[in-house]
Structure prediction request, 360 residues.
Amino acid sequence: MGFEKKMGENSRQLNLDVGSIFVPKTISDILTEVSMMHDFSKKSSKLDFYVHSLEEEMRKVDAFKRELPHCMQLLRDAIETLKKESLRWKGREMGPVMEEFIPLKGDSEGGGRAKLSTDFSEKKNWMSSVQLWSTPVHYENQDSVLSLRSRHQEEEGSGIDSQFQGCNNIKNSGGAFLPFKKAPGLSIKEQKRDSASAVNGGLSLSIPVAELELESESPDLISVKEPSAFLRPQLQQRKQRRCWSPELHKRFVDALQHLGGAQTATPKQIRELMKVDGLTNDEVKSHLQKYRLHIRKLPSTSGGTRDFSWVAQELPNKQMVAHSGSPQDHLNLGGSAKRGSGSAIGGDSMEEDEDDKCES
DNA sequence: CCCGGAATAT
DNA sequence: CATATTCCGG
Prediction:
C-alpha cells in the first residue's frame, strides 16, 4: 500500500510498499504434503524451506508494522488540518450558488463519494490459515537453486547438470523489478461454470488477510490503495505461471534443433531432452505452440520486420548490438536431419526451415 | 496417454 | 497485445 500525502507546506511522503504476503499453501496443506513424503531426510529441509519463506514474509510485514504509526500520524495530521480549514469557512456562507465548487466534505454529506472504504469484512485474524502465493524465492544470487516442485524424487541419474529457472534475476538493472505483485484483489465476478464444488464439508476458512481500518473521514488528498492480499477461495488455483527465462528458452531451442525443428519435435521429446527439473509436458507444449506461431509469420503484411529477438538472444557473449544486421553466429550442433516426412513438398511455405534464421 | 490447436486467463 | 494455462477433439 502506498500512502502519499501532499499538503502545501508540510508535505511528507510515506511510501511503504508491502506486497502481498505469500505462502504457497495453507498450513494444513503443507503439513499434509510433508507427511506424505517418503524420504524422511527431506522432510526437514522441506519444512525449513517453508519456514524460511514465512520468515521472509514476516520480515516484510514487520516493516509494514513499523510504518503504520507514521501512516496514522499522517492521516491524523491531514484530518486535523482539513478540519481546521473547514472550520475557518464554516461561518461565512457565500450563498448557495457556488457551493458545488467547494469540495469540503467534512462531515455529513453522506452518500456522495465514499470511495475509499475497502472494507469488506473486518476480519483481523490473519494467521488462521493464511494463504498466499508462492514465489520462487530466489534471493539475490544466481546460484541459489530451489526447485519448487514438491514431489519429485529424481529422475534419470544424469540429473546434476541443470535445474535452473531464474525468472527473477535480471541482469540489467534497468527495470524496476517488483519482487511481488499484488494479489488479484477483490474479484467479484464469479468464475465460470465449473468450480461447482461449492459445498465442502470441512470448508477451510480461508480468510482474507487483515484490513486496516482507517478513518472514514480521510480526505481526498490521501489516496489509499487497497491492502489486498486476499486469499483465493478456490482450493484449486490456477497453476503458477512458468516463466521462461532466457536460459530455459535456450535449452528449449537447443533441444528443438536436436529434434529436427519446431514442426517435428514433440513436446515430450523436448522435455526429456531439456532435462529441466520440474518442467512439465504441458508447459513445453505451450511454449512450443507459441514458438511455432511466431515462426510462421513474416510474409503477409508488407510492413513488418518481425521480431525474432527471442531466438536471437544469447547471453554468454555480449556481442550483437545492432539488430539491423543479422548476426548469425549459430553454433550448429549435429546435422539437422529431418524427421518424419522427407517428402519434398513445394507447396505453400517452406516446409521446415528450422533454425531460427531471419531471412529477407 | 500424447499432440495440436483453440479458448481463456493473466 | 503477449504469453501461459486449460479445454477439447483426434
